[in-house]
Design a protein that fits this description.
CATH topology of one domain: FAD/NAD(P)-binding domain
Bound molecules: flavin-adenine dinucleotide
Number of helices: 13
CATH superfamily of one domain: FAD/NAD(P)-binding domain
Helix content: 10-25%
CATH architecture of one domain: 3-Layer(bba) Sandwich
CATH class of one domain: Alpha Beta
Low-confidence stretches: 349-364
Shape: elongated
Strand content: 15-25%
Number of strands: 22
Length: 536
């Protein structure tokens, strides 16, 4: 079947005639979660759609290398490891954790600069149901899943202070956007996906108020451009700002960057091992806090401070994930054998890892100093070795100095690479410290044990195991005013009539939740905007 442009639905950009100009109505850069969602939603619309996707249908070393770049701030994932550059994008290996933003996540926080979105929860909420199914969740019904799952939460908390919450987890077989939606796009009459097509420059008219074309390059040396009425950049949280910054032949600071905001405000959900919860008797059953099946859903529970409490106290979201470190069985028949095996196991703990972190030894002294009698040792351990590790995952505060910049080095297409300077601030530190202190009090009150916080409250710097969640947010943030952001409430670049951005780079704040469900909901909202407002 041929498109109105006479191309098959998936086309190879390397076969496009040199210097050709393709014409369409909507041009989308990037075929990952955001790009695929937008293209699907425009199937059967009155617009012809071209998707420019850098990769093919599988991983390719040379294409992936276009993502390489240094980290100059806090230690972070390699920039060519934290995202994937082929059709389906990073959904080719994401973990599928989904949770919508809470209403309060869109609001300004007292005492925390740059918080608050130009849109509210009511603008996004209508799109979460469809976004859930798009992401691969089995149902749209968030409310019923949440309330039945929460009924099983073992730690009873004062809901005005701390609450049990859940994330829904997309089954592994349903996670990959490429596998789920390739055929649908293949069949669409009005969509053509160009593979191996790298957008290398956004060109504007003379006034800079309208994009005229996107320049495309392939690794095989082919060059062509796409003219459209509307352009949507959906190349991911690091590559979309890179493309704007690198489009600097007409505009030395880059396109959409008259106020120098493009690439700033990079946010993650930093995480580290924050505390141990030692049970004071009856161990809270950790199953709720471990990924598990309930009914038709996979879920995982965690604890966080209540949103109203966050708003009243000027706190941001901190997720507290609980994981059983070691469980001493109720009965053993051979005490001496059990203790000997345990000593062997504890000796090897330092070599074992939980997602990238060395498992610490919570009570080595108990084992070393325990009474010689194996039964006494066993009894001593039963009370002490049942221990739960608490990992904090933090909503990072918006910070203009946490940023992506162009560097001198160029990639194989001649485009400047980027460096990521990830930075956390004193606000982040105070937020997590205060939340942990309050959580310790709450755990004691609930009779769920004692919390041993691992890092001193006055400690400067961040724990050595601090890392991110591969969530790339904020670098083209949404704002009412062009001085504080890059896109407006519709996702349109301030001051440019036909350039939009889809993806978590438009997040004004990070919220506590994983980003993909919300970026997909925002993309569906953008599709509706384009269909309603039309193409001007
Ligand atoms: C290991 C891992 C686990 C994750 N787990 C979760 C999770 O549990 N929950 C969650 O919410 N999120 C998770 N994420 C993040 C999630 O994958 C991203 O939020 C999501 O994929 C972003 O979608 P996107 O479309 O904006 O970007 P991507 O999916 O990265 O897609 C961008 C697309 O643009 C293409 N592209 C890039 N540059 C160009 C260019 N110049 N020209 C043309 N095409 C280009 C790329 O090839 C790619 O296909 C995880 C990420 C990783 C790495």
């Amino acid at each position: 079947m041929a498109t109105p442009m006479g191309q098959p639905m998936f086309a190879d950009a390397r076969a496009v005639e040199q210097n050709r100009v393709l014409e369409t109505e909507v041009c989308i850069v990037g075929g990952g979660a955001a790009g695929i969602t937008l293209a699907r939603d425009l199937i059967n619309s009155r617009f012809r759609v071209v998707v420019l996707e850098s990769g093919g249908f599988s991983y390719d070393v040379s294409t992936q290398d276009l993502y390489r770049g240094p980290n100059t701030g806090l230690p972070y994932f390699a920039l060519d490891g934290v995202r994937l550059r082929y059709f389906g994008g990073t959904t080719n290996h994401w973990s599928g954790d989904c949770r919508p933003f809470d209403d309060a996540d869109f609001e300004a926080r007292r005492g925390i600069p740059y918080t608050g979105w130009p849109i509210g929860a009511a603008d996004v909420r209508p799109f979460y149901g469809r976004a859930s199914v798009t992401c691969g969740l089995p149902t749209t019904n968030l409310r019923s899943v949440t309330s039945s799952a929460l009924a099983l939460a073992p730690i009873r908390l004062r809901k005005e202070r701390f609450v049990n919450r859940i994330v829904r987890v997309v089954p592994p077989t349903a996670r990959n956007f490429a596998a789920r939606y390739k055929e649908e796009l293949q069949r669409a009459d009005n969509v053509t996906v160009y593979l191996h097509a790298n957008a290398v420059e956004v060109k504007t008219n003379e006034s800079g108020r309208k994009v005229s074309a996107i320049r495309v390059a392939t690794l095989s040396g082919r060059r062509f451009s796409v003219r459209a009425r509307v352009f949507v950049l959906a190349a991911g949280g690091l590559e979309t700002p890179r493309l704007l910054l690198a489009s600097n032949r007409q505009w030395p600071r880059g396109v959409g960057n008259h106020n120098g905001v493009v690439g700033r405000f990079f946010m993650e959900h930093p995480r580290f091992l924050a505390a141990y919860l030692a049970s004071a008797g009856k161990q809270p059953n950790p199953r709720f806090y471990t990924e598990h099946e309930t009914g038709r859903e996979r879920i995982q529970g965690y604890i966080a401070s209540a949103k109203e409490f966050q708003l009243a106290s000027g706190l941001l979201d901190v997720q507290l994930h609980l994981e059983q470190v070691y469980h001493v069985p109720k009965d053993v028949s051979d005490y001496a054998g059990y203790i000997a095996d345990l000593v062997d196991e504890v000796d090897s703990w330092e070599r074992v890892t939980i997602p990238g972190l060395p498992i610490p030894i919570p009570y080595p002294d108990v084992l070393r100093d325990a009474a010689r009698d194996p039964k006494d040792t066993y009894n001593a351990l039963r009370g002490k070795l049942n221990s739960i590790a608490v990992t904090a995952r933090i909503e990072q505060a918006p910070n203009p100095n946490s940023r992506v910049r162009l560097i001198r080095e160029r990639d194989a297409l001649g485009m400047h690479r980027i460096a990521l300077h990830w930075q956390l601030s004193a606000i982040d530190k105070a937020n997590v410290n205060r939340t942990l202190a309050l959580f310790g009090v709450e755990i004691g009150r609930a009779g769920a044990g004692r919390l041993k916080v691992l890092h001193a409250q006055n400690e400067t710097g961040w724990p050595a195991d601090t890392g991110g969640g591969s969530h790339l947010m904020g670098t083209t943030r949404m704002s009412r005013d062009s001085r504080h952001g890059v896109v407006d409430r519709d996702g349109r670049v301030h001051g440019i009539s036909n350039l939009y951005i889809a993806g978590s780079s438009v997040f004004a704040t990070a919220g506590g939740a994983t980003p993909t469900l919300t970026l997909v909901a925002l993309t569906l909202r953008l599709a509706e905007h384009l269909k309603t407002v039309g193409l001007r």
